[in-house]
Each structure stands twice: as C-alpha cells, then as structure tokens.
Amino acid sequence: MTTLSHYLENNQTDISLPLLQQLDCQDPLATKRDAFVLPKNTVYLDGNSLGAMPKLVAERAQQVLSKQWSQDLIKSWNSHNWIDLPVTSGEKIARLVGAAPGQLICCDSTSVNLFKVLSSAMQMQPGRKVVLSLAGNFPTDLYMVQGLASLLGEHNCQLKLIDESVNDQLLEQELTDEIAVLLLTQVDFRSGRLLNMQRLTELAQAKGILVIWDLAHSAGALPIALDACNVDFAIGCGYKYLNGGPGAPAFIYAAARHHNAVSQPLSGWMGHSSPFSFDKHYQKAAGISQFLTGTPAILSMSALDAALDVFADVEMTQLREKSLALSHCFHQLVLQHNCLRPLKLITPLKPAERGSQLAYQHPDAYALCQALISHGVIADFRAPNILRLGITPLYLRYVDIWQAVTTLAELVASNEYLKPQYAVKNKVT
Amino acid sequence: MTTLSHYLENNQTDISLPLLQQLDCQDPLATKRDAFVLPKNTVYLDGNSLGAMPKLVAERAQQVLSKQWSQDLIKSWNSHNWIDLPVTSGEKIARLVGAAPGQLICCDSTSVNLFKVLSSAMQMQPGRKVVLSLAGNFPTDLYMVQGLASLLGEHNCQLKLIDESVNDQLLEQELTDEIAVLLLTQVDFRSGRLLNMQRLTELAQAKGILVIWDLAHSAGALPIALDACNVDFAIGCGYKYLNGGPGAPAFIYAAARHHNAVSQPLSGWMGHSSPFSFDKHYQKAAGISQFLTGTPAILSMSALDAALDVFADVEMTQLREKSLALSHCFHQLVLQHNCLRPLKLITPLKPAERGSQLAYQHPDAYALCQALISHGVIADFRAPNILRLGITPLYLRYVDIWQAVTTLAELVASNEYLKPQYAVKNKVT
Q: 3-class SS at B49?
C-alpha cells in the first residue's frame, strides 16, 4: 500500500501552496479541527507542550460546575460517578496506547506516577540496583529516580545515564543483567527521536530487566502497542497530545501480569481495596486501582475525560499518517528556503525514528522562537539552542505548515528576529 | 469580652426559630452566603467533605477556559502567571493558618504531600524510626506511613498507633525520645475533636520529635497559628472548608527553619531550582518550592485560587465565633427533641476541644443520613455508626440549623428513616 507520507517522501519534494490546499481537501481528519477552540490568525505548533482546547471541554466544565459540584454537591461522587473517573478516563487512553482494559488509570502527575511504578519495579528486582536511562531523558524522570535513590540509599538504587545520542546498537549493549529497570521516554522531548519500543523491551526483558516507558510525547501522537510489546509499566501525560488542559492528570499503565506482585509506596486511601470502610491497615485494591493515591482532582480530570472523546472515532494509524505528511511538508519547505539553511534538523528523517515534532538547532533559536510567536506562529524553544515544532494532526491543516515556514523564512530573511525585544527571557521558556 | 457563643452557652438553652432569625439578622458574615452557588431548598451540612461552590469559581473557570487556555495557550504560563499559581494560592491559605510568607505551597493531594513531608522529617531524624499517630487518624495518613515503611523497611520506619480515645495526658505520655515524628490531624474526621496544637507540639519538640499536623478538617474552619505554635510541617486539603472544588489541590507547610535541611524524595522538575534549564541533575529550589513535584493542575488550582478569595475579608476569629454558635444551637435543638435522645454526641462539648462539625452515634446512622439527604438536609455518614454534620459558617444560616434539626426530628418521630430505601448502600458513603 502506498501511503500518503510514503508518496510524498518519494515523489513530492516541491511543496507548493496549491498542493497543500489540495491535501487539506482530501484530509479525512480535516473536520476534527472544528472540535477545537483555536485563536484566530495563529498557527499553533506547541501542542506537544500544551494541547489546544477541545470544545467538549467547555461543555463539560459547564456541567461539572453548574450542575455536578454546585447543585448535586457531595452526591456527585455517586450520581455523576466521580469516583470512577480515574478508570473511565484511563480506559479511553488505554484504547489509544494498545492496552487491554483494566491496566491503565488516570491520576496525579507524570512525575508522581513515575515514582509509583519505579518503586514497584525496584521492589520486584531484589539484588539489582541500577536504573538505566538516557542522559537526554526529560529531566523530571531523572530527578524522580534521584529522589528514590536518595531515599533508598546508593546501595539500593542508582541511576546510570548513557548519552542520548548513542545509536540503538550501543544502547542495546548497555542492557546487561546488572540493570534492574530500563526507563525510557518513547519520543525524545528535544529531538523528537522515536525509540523502538518492541525491540528495546524485548532485549531488556531477555536480561531480566523491567521496562518503564514514558509516553509523554507519544500518547495521542502515534500508534502505541503496550500489550503487544509486552511492556511492564508505562506513564504518560494528559496535557500534550491528549489535550486534557494545563497540568491535566497523568496516567499509569501496569501490565496485568504484575498486579499481584507489585506494591507501590504512595498507598493512599483511593488505592485501598475498600476506601470507605476506613480501615486503619492498608490493603491494596486488586488491579490497576492500587496505583491511586489521594482524591482525584475532578475538575481537571473531567476536562481530560471530555477531551479524550475527541479521539473516539480517530484511528491512530490515520493520525500518524497525517502527522508524518505534515512533518514531511514542513521540512521540505524549510529546505526550499535558502535563508533557512542555518537551521539544522536534529529530528531523524526516517518515519520509523521520529515522533510528531520537528526540532532544529540554531544559534539564535530563542530569538527565532520569540519572533515567530510575535508573528502568530506558536513554536517553542528548548535550551540551549533548539527550535521545536509540535505537529498535532487533529487541529493542524496543511496550509498552516505553509504559513509557519513562510513566516519563519521572512523573519530570517529580513533579520527581524535579531531585534532586541526577541531576546527578552520569559520565566517559562 | 462576652462572645456570642459564650453568651449562648451560658444563657440560652431554649433555642427558638425567632431567636435564630434574630441571630441571622445580626450575623456579620450573613452576606457571605451570596458568594456561593447553593441548591434551592437544601441545607448543606457536608461542607467538611466537599465545600460549596463560590461564584468566583465559575467566573474564573470561564476566564481560564475561554481566554487563558483556548486563546493564549502555552503563553499563559507566563502571561497569566500559571507558573506561580502554587505560590499564589499557597499564600492565600498561609494567611488563614497563621503562616508567614514563603512557607506554604499548593500542590498534589494531601496523601502525596504527606509522603513528602514525612520522608523529609524521617531523614532529619537519624537513629529514630517510629512515627506516632492515633489509630483514629484519617486512614490515608496511616496508609502513607505504611507505604513509606514498606519502602524503607521496618528497621527504618515504623508506625505506632495509640487509641484515639486517649485523653491528652495519656497521649503526652507516649511522647518519648524514641519517636521520630508525631503525626496528628488537628480535628478528628469522625468525632470532630480538636487537639491542642500548641501544647502537643511543644511537648513533642521537647523530646526531639518533629511534628506534622494534618489540617484537612481545620484549615478554613477555625483560627490556626502554625508559626506561633512552632509547627514543623503541616499538610491540608483544598476541597473541604476551603471550597476549592472536588479533589482540589492540597497544600504543604514547612517551617522556614527547615528549608535548608530537608530533602524530599518526590523531586520532580517543578521543585528544581531552575526547571527550564533542563539540567540532568536535581538541584532543589530554595524555599518552599522544593516541595513541588510535577506540573500543577491549572484548572483545579485556578478554581481553588478563586475560591480562596472568598476569605479575603474574613477574620478567622469571626468565622470561629459563628461556627461555635451554629454548633451550639444545633446540639441544643437536638436536646430539645425527646425523640432524638438515642443520638449520642461524640463531639466534645467544650469549644476549645471541638472543630467545626458535630458527630452523633446512632445504630441506624446510615439510614438516618440517607433519609435526611432525601429530605433536603445533606449530612454524611462515617462507618460504622456516625452521623456527621459539617458546620460551614460562610454559607450556613442559623435558620438552616432549625430546618436541619426539625427535619431530623420528624424523620425519627415518624420512623420514616426505617423505610428500606434508606438502607441501600452507595459506592461512596
């Protein structure tokens, strides 16, 4: 089968506005854009940092505030099933990441959830103390390992980092039987590099290593097959490609085969087998609910739950197809502008090796990013020199790609981006 | 000075509807009720489980959704100062609990926050392993200690429970120099008993014990003086008396004198001294921000932040005065109904020993509670036999107390509460 992205990569290097307009006309996901509230005259290429707001969220928030909380008050835990929301939302995500029911639940933040699964995994690996990860992994993942290590002591838990630029073969060599846990983020937050989940999981498990995948930059962005890859644990983020809102609740996946053996230390009342019996001894719930801790943040979780309904009729393979095509068009357009030659793509070109973003190194990446934002193209910057462009096929059009690259080229050609106002640093960059 | 509650207790045992109407007319907090959206024909006595919704929350949610998230998107971290929301909200709570600036921050759930301060406190107490608490403490507090103990091993961390019914003298005897941490909830979730924070903190510290207070049932309900009592650490809940919404973010207080020494293990990127430098080594932030972990749940935290503004012009002593008066009237009215004699008050009668709720034992407490709810009086039930009535002076009127007790008396006198429909158990009780 010749897919659109395959066709584009092999035959279509000259990207024109009419071609992009034609691709929009043929896009089976084109109507999805209407499911979102988007600012006018803006191309939003930062959905990998904060997803756009689905219209369903505003409707749901209205229900939760004007009916559930304010009118039905405490009764809503039963009558509006707030108590099951972590499971309900979790199952919607499970469908997107290839997890059979009963293995994925929404709760807390990605960082807190990593602490839970990492502690669980370490307890399952007596005699092994090393957590292996990449130096370029998203820092909070590394910090949480360091936090656990500081609590357990170096003799029980150590973080070993290998250079993020290693190729797969070198990474594989590090998978020795001294490693307790392999902790990897499927798509690198800087480069957008996509790791081979199937192969790395298999190689690690062959050495008795438990594998934790962080899906922050892949859940909702591309097809994932957690069960088929025999993954042990995964965590992920609700506010990027899943569009759950700023700081949306995160999620935990734990393979059903581990549910009996695990014991996670953030054992709050929501993870108890019978929370409302108010027993003074902790008895973990059966199944995935044992990973819950405190009372779920219902306002934030309701927003995420509503946002996930946008995916109800979306096939992830279709989404991926459009993501790759959009990315291809973006980079081809960059190549078509001589003035953009100083931009160095650090995202792998092969589709199988990249997620749903493009990242370019440039000495003035910060100023370029600020200039783009000022001109209605929302990109983001990652220190020290990366311009990062998130590709979110649910609400990006092919013509948006044209608009973005044209704007970028104009800012560079005119030296507009060198104006001092674009060098002013924000608190959050 | 003769306060209202003092006057009522000593002179006014015959509570009549006209008296209550008169008290409403004289109530300096009467107008605060207009700050809330409340269901019609309902007396809400469960604000100690889920606070009612302030009108400001609906306005704020509208801003956050229709402007901040959907229009300004990622820029809102700077332009709407989302990044500082944990501090901004925290300082609003600090004022209510007697904490000078820089010591209180909003984040995560009460359970997760307890894990942070408990781990911190244990690391500050080498050679001591026992966490002392009451068997009747809210279970999630006990479960989190058990979780930490399971991680650290019994030789490093042990939970010791003493009977919740002990008097202060007996509790004091348990404060030996083998104890690392004393973990107490200021107001008992079942009985409403209020512990003496000043005295217990002082006695514990005299033995080298660090003290953690859980303020879930006291923050926003009565005056608290964390700094004046020299408290070490505290945690609390945003969704009860603070009205932050279901599962609202919780908070952490850590006395400034401990900020350098502590090291908390849930060391996520928001607790880093420079989160956006994406350094691979954790370096804790100075001050209270070191207790942050993951990305804050902005939708839920914005609701809490707006809800806290209701307290902006409220003096906690005034709130306490009304709380005690409402509680006094409630119990006096119960005593005035012969049919309510089977209800046994387990809340201490002395104002200095009770929080802002009343709790009665009754063999059919569950059915009574369900019958009350069906008749527009929202109370709650705590296993095995407690009918619990939360007193929230910001939105309860004196006449509501009349309505509640009259309804209760009618349900009992008519045996209505014995009908089978009131015995049907809910998932959340």
A: coil
